[in-house]
Design brief:
The complex is a heterodimer. Helices cover 66% and strands 2% of the residues of chain A. By secondary structure, chain A is mainly α. Chain A has a two-stranded antiparallel ribbon. In chain A, α4 runs antiparallel to α8. Chain B is mostly helical. Chain B has one domain: Orthogonal Bundle (Helix Hairpins), CATH 1.10.287.3510. Classes of the chains: A mainly alpha, B mainly alpha. At the A-B interface, α1, α2, α3, α4 and α9 of A face α1 and α3 of B.
Chain lengths: 250, 115
């Protein structure tokens, strides 16, 4: 199909979608009103389980099964990426050399920010049930922190600080422990991923039952997954050489 | 104002789809997909919005109220973002593989089957 024909087909489809979307919006409750049925159910349910962050309560208590599915999506994507990006025929791992120029200020800022970023990541994970944040957000911050070493211009020190197998095991084991915590609820007779841990007192660090535990587990899984994922791309870009290829002319 | 947030959401989805359609580079197509997906975040947050509503997070020191924006759609937006990130990673990995085997990332040049 020519590009012009494709554009035409898209134009028709997009116009149809736009019209239907406009009708759907016109039939929706007005924007910004105080009428939110799910909110009216979710907030009391969160308060009942003494969870200050209602979003965390929805993610790790009321809809924890969905979050387990999300963890599995994350795990499968890491596995998929690792499978796709493994060195193929003719590719060899090459020793990394120091190349390129990194300004001293970048190096300095990266080294200074590394401990700060790790601390922020841990804080975001640990207080996920009290303040905005949680396992997913904190895990991404933690995975980012490790890669500040790369920004500092030292891929070797990144590789040294990042024994990849540890992160692989972290990712797998924490995803598995999410399911195990769910099974504890089942064993106690309350149901899979039910909030069975002691609830503690509202708005304190030890509250919300299983929510902070699942937050920590998720944080570990996301941090491990993020590092493993990025390592595959780094391995392709920096750590391998390709055999000289014939450019196909067809 | 009532329509504005929904219009932005619809526009983002369409403009992202348009980007995929017109792309001559698979990396650009992947980024366009992320743009289209961000339309769904705007839609979700617009559905749950309430004028003068507080954040659905009762941090220590604040008193719980029921006048908050909808936490359920916020949790869904979070799920959405995680899925979007993993899909982006997989698509970029596929792009690397396609570049290796076909020596091009232009989707229009990827029409012949290769055994």
């Amino acid at each position: 199909m020519s590009r012009r024909a494709r554009l035409l087909v898209f134009g028709l489809g997009a116009a149809g979608l736009a019209v239907m979307f406009a009708f759907a919006v016109a039939g929706m409750p007005p924007f910004g009103t105080s009428e939110h049925l799910y909110r009216d159910l979710a907030v009391p349910a969160a308060l009942q389980h003494r969870t200050a962050n209602v979003v965390s309560s929805v993610n790790f208590d009321q809809r924890a099964l969905d979050t387990l599915g999300e963890e599995v999506i994350l795990l499968s994507s890491v596995i998929g990426t690792a499978a796709l990006l493994r060195p193929t025929r003719g590719e060899v791992r090459r020793p990394t050399t120091r190349g390129g120029h990194v300004s001293d200020s970048t190096t300095l800022v990266s080294y200074l920010l590394l401990p700060v970023t790790v601390l922020i990541g841990l804080d975001v994970v640990a207080h996920g049930h009290l303040t905005p944040g949680g396992g997913f957000q904190g895990g991404v911050v933690l995975a980012t922190a490790v890669h500040l070493l790369y920004l500092a211009g030292r891929y070797e020190s990144l590789e040294r600080l990042r024994p990849l197998t540890w992160y692989v095991w972290t990712e797998g084991l924490s995803a598995a422990s999410f399911a195990v915590i769910g099974l504890v609820g089942l064993a106690q007779g309350s149901g899979f991923l039910a909030n069975v841990a002691p609830l503690g007192s509202f708005q304190s660090l030890l509250s919300a039952g299983t929510v902070p535990i699942l937050n920590v587990v998720t944080g570990a899984a996301v941090a491990g997954g993020g590092v493993v994922l990025l390592a595959q791309f780094f391995g392709q870009a920096i750590g391998t050489t390709r055999p000289p290829t014939r450019r196909s002319t067809s | 104002m009532r329509i504005f947030a929904y219009a932005v959401a619809g526009w983002l989805v369409l403009v992202g789809a348009m980007g995929i359609l017109r792309s001559r580079n698979l990396i650009q197509a992947t980024v366009s997909l992320s743009v289209a997906q961000s339309g769904t975040y705007v839609l979700l947050l617009a559905v749950g919005y309430q004028w003068e509503g507080a954040a659905p997070v009762f941090s220590p020191g604040s008193t719980p109220t029921s006048d908050v924006v909808d936490p359920v759609v916020q949790a869904m937006a979070l799920t959405d973002i995680v899925v979007s990130a993993t899909v982006t990673a997989l698509l970029l990995a596929l792009t690397i593989q396609i570049e290796k085997t076909h020596h091009t990332v232009d989707p229009d040049k990827l029409q012949q089957l290769k055994g």
